[in-house]
Design goal:
14 strands, 8 helices, about 270 residues, 7-stranded mixed beta sheet, 2 domains, alpha/beta, elongated, Metallo-beta-lactamase, Chain A, about 35% helix
Length: about 270
């Protein structure tokens, strides 16, 4: 646990779920307020140590958990909601609606939409619908301090998977990054990795990385690679096998964007340049 900024009181708690896909594990963020109520950004996975850390921190700041706001419905962000609800029955749980994902977590979700304000004492954070990584993705914006809770939109020193087979959309993702850039945030607090104090450089880097990948996919198609598998193998040669499923999802996302742009076509699982 560490305090990350003095502009808005934020404490980071690890969800204790390291893996090849989550790296060191998820960050969840506790926002305690002077009125004795606290907001938690993302629910983690229900790990006992996360639950214990949260309880200890709430005691230390003399708060109760009032709200859990979830950036999106992927399991590493939302599956801890039932365990949190059992420990904190008065807390409310809120996220953008994604029916097929939300139903698997047995809590009464309150629907958030773009522009909704979530009270943090006499302050607030604003929900921003930022789809692309997933259809329900939200970022949370604390305007007065320039702090942006970015979920899975960015990660320092890495790239974000666009899960095309589960609602990810690369065109929407790029638009969401542009929206973040326009806010001119001072600090990004991502769900994975360290806090980011050079938002413009990191967001711009993510945009440039996706443009590079698109050029690589186009080049692979031009060289005769015509399936998601063979394109991924040509671009991600030597990648850890555990990460290849994510690489294929990214390739599929790029192909679908190229198709939407009229630059590629698919028939029977085979792709070609238009």
């Amino acid at each position: 646990m560490r305090r990350l900024t003095h502009a808005v009181r934020v404490l980071a708690l690890s969800a204790h779920n390291p893996s090849p896909m989550t790296a060191a594990g998820n960050n969840t963020y506790l926002l305690p307020a002077a009125d004795g109520r606290a907001v938690l950004v993302d629910a983690g996975v229900g790990h006992e140590q996360h639950l214990a850390d949260l309880a200890a921190e709430l005691d230390a700041v003399h708060c109760r958990l009032a709200h859990v706001i979830v950036t999106h419905g992927h399991a590493d962000h939302a599956s801890g909601a039932p365990a949190l609800a059992r420990r904190h029955p008065a807390a409310t749980f809120a996220k953008y609606h994604w029916p097929e994902e939300d139903a698997q977590y047995t809590v009464g979700w309150r629907r958030l939409v773009d522009g909704d304000a979530i009270a943090v004492g006499d302050d607030e954070v604003i929900a921003l619908h930022t789809p692309g990584h997933s259809p329900d993705h939200l970022a949370f914006w604390h305007a007065s301090s320039g702090t942006l809770f970015t979920g899975d939109l960015v990660i320092a020193g890495g790239s974000v998977m666009i899960h095309a087979s589960r609602g990810g959309n690369l065109g929407q993702y790029l638009a969401s990054l542009e929206r973040l850039l326009a806010l001119e945030p001072r600090i990004l607090l991502p769900a994975h990795g360290a806090a980011i104090d050079d938002p413009r450089a990191v967001i711009t880097g993510h945009l440039e990385h996706r443009r590079l990948r698109e050029r690589q996919v186009v080049a692979a198609l031009g060289a005769g690679h015509d399936s998601v598998q063979t394109i991924a193998e040509s671009i991600y040669h030597g990648l850890d096998p555990a990460l290849m499923p994510a690489a294929r999802e990214n390739v599929r996302a790029h192909l679908e964007k190229l198709h939407a742009d009229g630059a590629a076509a698919e028939a029977g699982g085979r792709w070609r340049l238009s």
